[in-house]
Design brief:
Largest sheet: 8 strands, parallel, barrel
Radius of gyration: 18 Å
Helix content: 25-40%
Strand content: 5-15%
Distance between the termini: 9 Å
Bound molecules: zinc ion
Number of helices: 9
Structural class: alpha/beta
Strand order of the largest sheet: 1-2-3-4-5-6-7-10
């Protein structure tokens, strides 16, 4: 056992936590679920992830959530709804995407979240990628420019498993996406290990994970990786399938997660699990990742 050094005494190098359900109360339900997981980081939805509704928060729950996360040094993140697609050829979808993401960004600030994760979307309707990226610039860049408060969250781009005409699945796809957004200072990356594996980056082997992280840093630069979705994969590398598995039980296996927490680009970056198995499965995955954090291969 050889502990991985942390930059701050008492603060883990990589806080490990999970996506938690919040129906019934951000604080009363969400945070108590997080405590049951012994989570050191937390991710929530602030709207139905499969809808366009933009619900107002409950100010008392918001404040209790924000205060508890601050008190316990638990970094919080918001995952924006899945329907958002700034590359869509349907005007209504793009307009709803703007309203939905603006809502998630505002709610994130209200609950003290550090970042909002949004999927990078796809070029639908058979349109070229360049056209879709121009549209990403037209509609997404203004939302980034609205992030002027001291406590505004970062916008974290999450690449996909590479299904259909996805705009961003391989590490280098972040290049044109960042370029389209002028590499805005409020822009970051959320790397999902299952997605990037499914997209074709083999994370296994002695250096698979480090090579992939090197490629990412080579594309977006240092300091942009701000969150990791730590998920194993039910499918083989390059399968382009987004099916999460419990840590160590899929085709990625435990070793790449251990390696993940030794790469310089992940220093201080929280891990969030989005795995199956309900609360018991989630607690086991959080515990497994914490163990891997403290051992070197
Ligand atoms: Zn994810």
């Amino acid at each position: 056992m050889s502990p991985v050094q942390s930059s701050l005494p008492g603060v883990p190098r990589n806080p490990v936590g999970g996506h938690v359900p919040v129906a019934g109360g951000l604080h009363s339900v969400g945070l108590s679920y997080a405590r049951d997981l012994k989570a050191e980081a937390v991710q929530v939805f602030v709207a139905n992830p499969r809808g366009w509704a933009t619900p107002a928060g409950n100010p008392r729950q918001d404040e209790a959530f924000r205060a508890a996360c601050a008190e316990e040094s638990v970094p919080a993140y918001v995952h924006a709804p899945y329907l958002i697609n700034f590359g869509s050829h349907t005007e209504a979808t793009v307009e709803r995407s703007v309203e939905s993401l603006r809502h998630s960004l505002r709610r994130a600030r209200e609950i003290g979240a550090l970042g909002v994760v949004v999927h990078t979307g796809s070029a639908t309707g058979g349109r070229p990628r360049e056209t879709a990226l121009r549209q990403v610039r037209e509609y997404l860049l203004p939302l980034l420019d609205e992030l002027t408060h001291d406590d505004d969250p970062f916008l974290l781009l999450e690449s996909t498993a590479g299904q259909g005409s996805s705009l961003c699945s391989r590490t280098w796809d972040f290049g044109p996406y960042f370029e389209a957004l002028d590499a805005h200072p409020m822009l970051g990356v959320c790397l999902d290990t299952c997605h990037v594996f499914a997209a074709g980056h083999d994370l296994t082997g002695p250096s698979g994970m480090h090579q992939t992280l090197d490629l990412l840093v080579g594309t977006v630069g240092a300091g942009r990786l701000k969150l990791i979705h730590a998920n194993d994969s039910k499918d083989v590398v390059g399968a382009h399938k987004d099916r999460h598995e419990n840590i160590g039980a899929g085709h990625i296996g435990e070793d790449p997660f251990r390696a993940l927490m030794t790469h310089p680009a992940t220093e201080g970056v929280p891990l969030i699990i989005e795995t199956p198995g309900g609360k018991q499965g989630h607690a086991a995955d959080v515990e497994r990742l914490k163990k891997l954090r403290w051992t070197t291969p």
